[in-house]
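Quick one - inputs below.
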Amino acid sequence: MRKKVIVLPGDGIGPEIVLQATSVLHTIAEKFGHEFDVTEKLIGDIALETTNCSLPEQTITACKQADAVLLGAVGGPVGENKWKDHPTGDRPEKGLLKIRQELELYSNLRPTILYNELKDASPLKSEIIGDNLDIMIVRELTSGIYFGKKTKIVGDADKDTYAIDEMYYNKYEIRRILKTAFKIAQGRKKNLTVVDKANVLETSRLWREVSAEVAKDFEDVKLTHLYVDNAAMQLIVNPKQFDVLVTTNMFGDILSDEASMITGSIGMLPSASLGDTTLGLYEPIHGSAPDIAGQDKANPLATILSVAMMLRHSFSLEEEALCVEKAVKEVLQLGYRTLDIYTDKDKLVGTTKMGDLVCKCIENM
Ligand code: IPM
Ligand code: MG
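Output:
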């Protein structure tokens, strides 16, 4: 099989984790006789630095012509508002939001899987986590408050100075993400939880209305509704109750960070952003971690696991995807850990070594 992959390393730890992930991709190509043509393009802070735009046209065109996109991370140092005076209000994160929208990747799958080897790294008690915790968070990715109209009015008095972020959802957008979630639930434990704030938000009440409609086509799936504040709590007190969670863009952003901590580290969680075609964007759910950038400390496993998702969802290479996932598990079983998941009985390794170990494991499988 021959596929075109665009790689967007981005900022902070992006380049170093993506480097390990592409090594894994090449190792898979070699082992299984595929060809993956990898081309790098700009996004984020680095794109702003060099082209004055967080998502240059060239990047968009290349991504649209590709079979899949692998992204590292975007964003400059925390608290540093480097681009506050940019003439169009551009900033690194806008590049990421725009590429998701340009490619119409409305379904963001964020599998929250706890490797039993990492139970010690989880802040939750072992009896709460249980064995083989596996929750799929499905986050709507191209609408909601992220993409609604944004207004800032500066007046003379405090009360006349205000900002508005509109949360917009239409039935079409809700229906398609719910369908994705129902289908995923059908292939799992057939348990779907729609997370919203229907006691307060009109958009949430529309989500409930549409979920009742969509549910008619998925009678084998058990549908539950949960308020987001309760969901945040339930994830901590009883995460085992969940199979598939589906929610809006912003709630999904927040809950997936929360859920990631159950698995020991946000450095472990991959994601796939999909639309109606096989073109997908794959990225770790964590950010650019500028504080540890360039120090060989970052955990590349979330990005490597994102490659597995790419093989599965964009290329339908299930065996290859499983091979990557098995290799990650094996390396963890052997006791190798990056700093974020390290406990004193483990073998501490850096970003490069972790990537090498996964590649070796794939080669020897
Ligand atoms: C994520 C990130 C992004 C988001 C940021 C960087 C814009 O937090 O992918 O979860 O909020 O979607
Ligand atoms: Mg996030």
